[in-house]
Specification:
Elements: E1 3-8, E2 14-19, E3 25-29, H1 35-47, E4 53-58, E5 64-70, E6 73-78, H2 84-97, E7 102-105, H3 116-120
Parallel strand pairs: 1-7
Antiparallel strand pairs: 1-2, 2-3, 3-6, 4-5, 5-6
Amino acid sequence: MGTFVISQRLSGVYKYEFTSRKGKTIFTSNDFELRFEAEEEIERLKAALDVIVFMRFRSPRGKFYFKMILDKVEVAKSRQYTTQLLMQKGIDEIMRSLASSEILDFSSSDEIFPPAEDVFGV
């Protein structure tokens, strides 16, 4: 099952990534000024999975990628794949698990792990 991961860029804007069950990024969203905007778009994607258009491209270096279009607006861009088959597997993963995927929010500035001093007694 895939997972949406919301994070904050160093510039302060928010984005989300959809990752496979193995933890590999399949696509990354555009930037959002507010975190709830990213959450709203994720819910829109889940609800409108049947009308999302996947536009396939090839980079100048020969890598394959796709852009996701919803309501005539580009909402996300995939990572680059070495073959068309791998790109299609990424699209298949989206179609299979997007609607039931969970959302992880790593956008807060709170530390996820305890300080090293607490763990190692340094």
